[in-house]
Amino acid sequence: MSPYEAAFFWIAVCLYGITSALYIYAFVFKKESIFGRIPYFIAVSLAFHTAAALARYAAVGNLPVAGDYENSVGQAWFIVAITLYLSVRHPALRAVGVATLPLSLLMLGYGVMRGAELAPMHVSVRSVWLYVHVFFAWLAFGAYAIASGLSILYLKREKNPDKEFYQKLPDLPRLDDLMFRYLIFGFITDAVMIGAGAIWAKNLWGNYWSWDPVEMWSLLTWLIYGLAIHLRVTMGWRGKRLAWILIFALSGMIITYFGINWFVKSTLHIFDAGKGML
């Protein structure tokens, strides 16, 4: 990291840690007043996060789209940005951050642990399709993370129908509808991500599809989310059953993004010069 990036990054991490702790405390002890203040913490944290990403861009000359660290910076930014949007636009959904903020914090921790050395992107991997591929991956992961957070809220709302704290959440049909909408959005952007990645791979490796571990897990996860849509539309799986699927399906995205590079060293999605997951 450059000195400026390191300063901005660690300030953002500290603020995300504080915000995550506030979320957990407010949710466990049902402190509605804290939820009203949390969006300010998110906004400030996201500002430092953005500054760290810009400092990275100034140092290496490309957006954070290459390597485990850069991927975690970009993906966590999108998850937090969507969480902030929901918190401001729909105050009743502020509690969704109890799932998304700790997830983003852990993603940043994983990324920096994997190495944040400054290194320019190799010319061989530079392509507009890379940016399309990564941008839609960020959108898909962000949507799936929000859907998972909404699922947690649904389960808590259903289990505690008479408690005043949970009554301030949207009603169950509204939460169910939002879960499904973010599922659909994530599924479509995920499909674009896979397609753009195939086009980019053709230019880079000469094949649209190489049966690479990351490609396979990405496809498997996409099919699981597609199955969730099928079960909802054709078999009427709503509410609790859909919520549990969305919570557990997120693990597929986490494995795709981070788990493969941790355990598998032969994947084509690892590049040298500190550049990893693409």
Task: Summarize the structure in words.
By secondary structure, this protein is mostly helical. The chain has 2 domains: 1-115; 124-268, no CATH class. The chain has 9 helices and no strands. Helix 3 runs antiparallel to helix 4 (97-114) and helix 3 crosses helix 5.
Helix content: over 70%
User: Treating each run of at least 4 consecutive H or I residues as one helix, how many helices?
Assistant: 9
Low-confidence residue ranges: 271-278
How is the main sheet built?
A: none
Mean pLDDT reading: 87
Structural features:
278 residues, mainly alpha, 2 domains, 9 helices, 77% helix, 0% strand, disordered C terminus
Concise overview:
77% of the residues lie in helices and 0% in strands.
Q: What topology emerges from the helices and strands here?
A:
Layout: H1 3-28, H2 32-60, H3 67-89, H4 97-114, H5 128-159, H6 164-167, H7 172-205, H8 213-235, H9 239-263
Helix pairs in contact: 1-2, 1-4, 2-3, 3-4, 3-5, 4-5, 5-7, 5-9, 7-8, 7-9, 8-9
